[in-house]
Amino acid sequence: MKTITFTVTLAFAVARKRKIFLDENIQSFFKDQALASLHKYGVTNIQLYFRSYGVVIQADLPIGITPEMAVKIVKRATTGKMRKEFPELRAMNALWTKKYWWTEGALTEDQKIEMDRFFDYQSAR
Fold it and tell me: Which strand ranges, in their side-by-side order, compose the sheet holding 44-51?
């Protein structure tokens, strides 16, 4: 029996626009943890795109997993493990912003502009 899914694009940012994803080791570690955690919930066709201070995830979510849940799954699965693996991240009060952005399907040109605005409006304090 085939599982019903819907394609979404999710995005969330690193707190205070810290450019942690410029480090390829952090990117790789995050990718491994995020993929493993999402696969446990039946999320498929996962693609990750990194920005210097954020990540964009395109995936097929099974019915019952909302975009908000998917973001929480990734944030919860990665935060503690990344702080253990990379001591420089321990000093950060929060690793991720509380906000996230999502849209159904793959990104159109207008949605890419909207997503860029989301990242630009994140606080850099």
Answer: 44-51, 54-62, 5-13, 101-104
Structure-model confidence comparison of residues 111 and 125, the more confident one = 111
Residue 88: helix, strand or coil by DSSP?
helix
- Kindly list the distances between the CA atom of residue 99 and the CA atoms of 4, 12, 75, in Å, as whole numbers in the listed order: 27, 7, 11
Fold of 6-120: Alpha-Beta Plaits (3.30.70)
Residue 73 contacts residue 33 (beta carbons within 8 Å) = no
For the chain, which residues make up each domain, given as ranges? Answer: 6-120
pLDDT digits (tens, 9 = 90+) for 56-91: 999 999 999 999 999 999 999 999 999 999 999 998
pLDDT band at 34 (very low <50, low <70, confident <90, very high): very high
CB neighbours of 76 closer than 8 A, spacing ≥ 6?
A: 37
